[in-house]
Amino acid sequence: MTLTLLDELLLFSGVTVLVALFLGRRLPAGWMVTILYGIQLLSLLKMAPLGYGGDPIPSTLILEVMGQTLSWRFDALSWYFALITLGSALLSSWYACGEWEQRFRQAGGNVWLFHLAMALNVFSMLILLASGDLLSLFIGWELVSWAGFLLMAMAGGVATRAAMRYITYAMVGAMAIFGGIALVYVSAGSLQYDAILTAVSQMGTPHLWMLVILFSAGFGIKMGLMPFHLWQAPAYAETPGPGSAFLGAISSRMGLFAILLVLVKLFGIVNIESLKIPFTLIDARDLLAWIAVFTIIFPTFTAMKQNDARELLAWHGIGQGGYMLLGLVVADAMGAAGGLLHVFNHATYQAALFMAVTAVIHRTGTSDLNKLGGLVVRMPLSFMVLLVGIIGLAGLPPMNGFVSKWLVYRSLLNEGMPLLFVAAVIGTLGTILSVYKLIHNIFLGQLRVEHEHIKEAPWSMMIPMLILAAIIFITGLLPGIPLAWVASVQEAVGLSVPNYTLGGVESASGSLDMIWVIGVLFAGFGIGALVFYSAGKSKRVHQLDNYAGGHFLTADIRYQYSDNFYAGLMHLIGGWYRGSFLWLEKSVKSLVEFLSLGMQGIYRRANAEFYLLSTALFVIAWVVI
Amino acid sequence: MNSMVVLPLVLPLFGAFLLPIIMRASVGVGLWVGPAILLYGCWILGNQWISGTAMPFSLAIGGFAPPMGINLYVDSLALLFALAVQLLGLIFWPFKLDPETARRQALMLLLVAASTGLALSGDLFNLYVFYELVAVATFGLISASSTGSAYAATIRYLILSGIGSVLTLLGIALIYSQTGTLNLAHLAQLAPEQLNNKLGLTAFLSILIGVGVKAELFPVNTWVPEVYATAASRVSAFLAGLVSKLALLIILRLLVLIFHQQEAIQVMLFLGILGVVSGELAAWRAKDMRRMLAFSSIGQLGMIFIALSIPDQAGLLAVLALSFHHLLVKSGLFMLADGWGGAIENLRGAAKRSPLAAIVFILFSLSLIGMPPLPGFWAKFTLITELAAQTSPLYLIGLAVFLLATVIEAAYLFRLAALLYRPVSEEKPIDTIPKPAGVSLVSASLFGVGLLAAALFITPVGELLNHVAGQAANAELYIDTVLAGTGGGR
């Protein structure tokens, strides 16, 4: 028996968990784990042919349990997601080593548990991505859920509460999937993908509806799709810094992976499109698209109101998931490519953003947007990384987020879905407004006195951030690199493939070449710079050396406010924020409480004999009559 | 060799009567009697298990062949339960030394004897006798903790159980009046003609409700929370873990052999669903760990009743898997509750005081919820695939309820787990946090190890249970074995 490349990868990943578990209490454990992530990544790169249309690689491990066959294998889809997983794990773990780790330990954090939880997350994600049948998919799914719970809950306090909320949602999702799997098993007689493919083609409409609802709800909960989005932002935001970078980058994309695998590959978009909703003009696919669009809009505008940088980013994470799903359900070559490419792009800029914010927390001790400001001169590199990140997040050139969003927009227009297009643009508007709030309140405006002597983040944290920033720019300039992987994913799940080039896509209905776009952009910058530098000398003053109205302003006078940031806008749209979903969540909880009270009442009653006799009488009467 | 099987039933019975006398003569010897008997019982049953479970056999007692005489029916299911009884008797052995020791140990031996009899008995009347004997032994054991609330709980349980027994007896009487026999195999032969009517249905339902008192069936289980919250944890563990399963075994035998009416099954399914709903919801608000476990046990038993309403081999496999899983997990959890009883709020930070206990608790919780690859997942998986395969809509409702109940289960179990890990306030000294006693913790860890072993060897375990279920679901085999007397005799 020879080990396949996949066995090797899973083995390395398992070893990482063991190292974190047994050697994790030693000091350089962080570095060891990071190096092991690097080895895992190398082992994944050995499978690179998968990203260019290679044949799936099986694992030699096959289990027979209770009449079920469990198997694992990697195809282009798994490889693409695994690449993002391991990349973000490597960089987050690297970021955590060194100074951050020391500070975390001093603050009473458990570094051992942190590295262990990260390693477990990566391992379980790889298991999930490698799943070769629906049962191993479910096993991987549950492992990922609980590993995520561990990472989210470990900080204690607020974090544990958020994690509890997460795990309740996740259990709802898991049970929906579990029920779906049972139904699939009954109609297909097996949980192997091939058997399901044939069974789907013979399934009746009600059955298929049921399955689509169960699976999309189950997988959607992990993605934070509306109306199951409430758990995600607090849970991710409260995770220790590098952990939230990792979770924000990839964790909820596991939901998208499963949707791709089950809804797109096994059920097929065509079948989903055939499910019409009676008395309306829309079908199940439109329904999913609208859910995606609402998932873009509501969380994005909720993000705008956040006053904590991490919460703001986490809410955006939910909204960006909407773009991915939107692109996927449009399901033409460009849209699907856009949705899939956005997974990669989002991971890069979201990780960079969380890292930059964590760097600010590391130096200032807060992520409260009302207590920061003017750090651009103190932490210029972090500022650059955050700037690159938010340009990516907002989907503007020259960063990679632009390419994926452009593809999604283009496909919406090509496919004749103007309403969805407008809604998506509204979402982007909200994104731009809120990321401006983010960068302004942290880095621009007035420097606070207490932050006067702050230094740039340490290099152990800076290097991963810079690497991410470089990736964001390079894949913005040359989107052809990830598009090649995306194309093989599309082929693997049975979607049509766009005609991509190194600089973008070529198509009769609209082409994009980022090399040209960025060339023109930088030419513009160049002209601007020429004008700026030829205008003559400027005088440098200290950041706290200000005056207004002819008076000097001492540093302790606040003359520039960041609180209540978009007051004017909120005056217009503030009434729209009603917290309806919070209300809904609360009422479900109260309902359970109420029912629970009633049930306890039944058991508290002293007249137990009465129950017994009346039940007996009732049953006998029922028989006789 | 086969007749040796009687010994694990007879020896504890004798032991129970002789123990007080021996104790009076010499405490040192007396203390060893009980464990020795149980160990010997384990050894015999274990040997029997190894030497062959391929074919069941029947053992006529008193020299008359069935259906006239009494017989023990030994198939792999009965053996498995008998073995579990002896093992758990050993694990939960009341070794505590105080003036009550002799009484408590005698009662425990009686309980073991009666439970073994319940597992092996081949006719309805003996089942009833052993069932009553179990009841008597448990009353004594519960009240042995001699607190006021324990007495109150016992009386409630006693009354309920008494009425239940009357109902059971009524059912048995109905069957006897119709058929003139109480031998299960003989009944199985006669049932299609004589019991496939309203009378038969009434008989089954009275037995179901009567026996349901111990099996924690929905409306007749109101004794459960009080008793489990007040009795000694070891007794609760034995009751929740094993006695409830033995009561289920009676119903299982009746369903497989005698009663095949759709109505009977539907009533059971319906009550099972209500049990899941009421138990899990009530547990959500429970403010005391033992009470929470008691309610969760009601919910779990409800799930087993749902599984029991699919009386073919696959359904029985689900019943067995769920039962044995529940047996392992709930016994272990009750062992942890020994020391973790009282208000849940007091458990804040308990993980710091006893990290092992907290980890074992999480392991049990995860398995109870059905987290793969722990055995609980496979048990639930067999159940839901079976449920989904049924055509009647009530089964689908059962499936939905089952899934929702799991969510609630996860929520309350992990609320407690999170509490265990919550940091303690500074001024509270760590010694004041409750902690499970050493022995309880060791037994709980043993159950945990058993659970992990089952997870590792899930393939052989699954095959084994499937074999057991296949044998148990085969009514013809039962009839042939008993009435043709293969392997019988003394």
Overall, the morphology of chain A is: globular
- Unreliable runs of chain B: 486-490
Query: What would the average pLDDT of chain B be, to the nearest integer?
Result: 82
Radius of gyration of chain A: 26 Å
**E-strand count of chain A:** 7
Description:
The complex is a heterodimer of chains A (625) and B (490). With 625 residues, chain A is mostly helical. Chain A contains 25 helices and seven strands. In chain A, the strands form three sheets. Chain A has a three-stranded antiparallel beta sheet. A two-stranded antiparallel sheet of chain A has the order 1-2. In chain A, strands 6-7 form a two-stranded antiparallel ribbon. In chain A, helix 6 (134-153) runs antiparallel to helix 7 (158-188) and helix 14 (284-304) packs parallel to helix 19. The mean pLDDT of chain A is 86. With 490 residues, chain B is mainly alpha-helical. A two-stranded antiparallel ribbon of chain B has the order 1-2. In chain B, helix 5 (124-143) runs antiparallel to helix 6 (148-179). The longest helix of chain B is centred in the middle third of the chain and has 32 residues, at 148-179. Chain B is globular, with a radius of gyration of 22 Å. The model of chain B is unreliable at 486-490 (pLDDT under 50).
